[in-house]
Amino acid sequence: MYEYHLGPGEPAYPAHFNCQCDEEVMQALVMAGAMVAIADGFVAQVERDELVHFIDRQGFVPSISRQRIAAAFDATVRELDDRNAPNVIVEKFRPLSGLSLGSVVMRVAQRVAAADGKLHHRELQAIHLIGLILAEAFVTRRHGDCRLQPIDAAPAR
């Protein structure tokens, strides 16, 4: 297990992580940004731009281009319009359940929410929901299962 203390220009995780991990991390970060961006009912270009810029500038996914991040954001916004959005959200966050990137996901969500200069109460609710999903992943991991389960397959409590 790694802990990450990011400073400007430091990689988000050890250099030996592979491109598949980059893709999974990018999908989770993009999901967080998309959830917040659509929360107020309007996706502003500045929100998309902030997400792409922040992910690229911090070096979270060095093997993925800015154009690919932007395309993933657009696709994720479209996916969230689908009826199966809860399962899509869980699937995108699933790879992070074994990594210490929760604070990075929250920073991405907060930056996207603030990008247009207005914090809508639904954006704050989306950030809170992301935190709950990440907390559930942490609790699930501590109890022996290091992966999130789809909504319809989650055990009854």
Main attributes of the structure:
single chain, mainly alpha, 157 residues, TerB-like
Question: Can you put this structure into words, describing what you see?
Answer:
With 157 residues, the protein is mainly α. It has a single domain, classed as Orthogonal Bundle (TerB-like), CATH 1.10.3680. It has helices spanning 19-39, 45-58, 66-80, 85-93, 102-114, 121-142. Helix 1 runs parallel beside helix 5, helix 2 packs across helix 3 and helix 2 (45-58) runs antiparallel to helix 5. The longest helix has 22 residues, at 121-142. The two termini are 28 Å apart.
Described by its quaternary structure, the protein is single chain
Query: In angstroms, what is the radius of gyration?
Result: 15 Å
End-to-end separation:
28 Å
Main sheet?
A: none
Helix and strand succession?
A: HHHHHH
Low-confidence stretches: 1-17, 143-157
Q: Tell me, what's the shape?
A: globular
CATH class: Mainly Alpha
List the total number of helices.
Answer: 6
Which strand-content bin applies to the residues? under 5%
Count the strands?
0
| CATH fold node name | TerB-like
The overall average pLDDT, rounded, is 79
Query: Structurally, how many domains make up the residues?
Result: 1
Structural class: mainly alpha
For the record, the CATH architecture stands as Orthogonal Bundle
Approximate helicity band: 55-70%
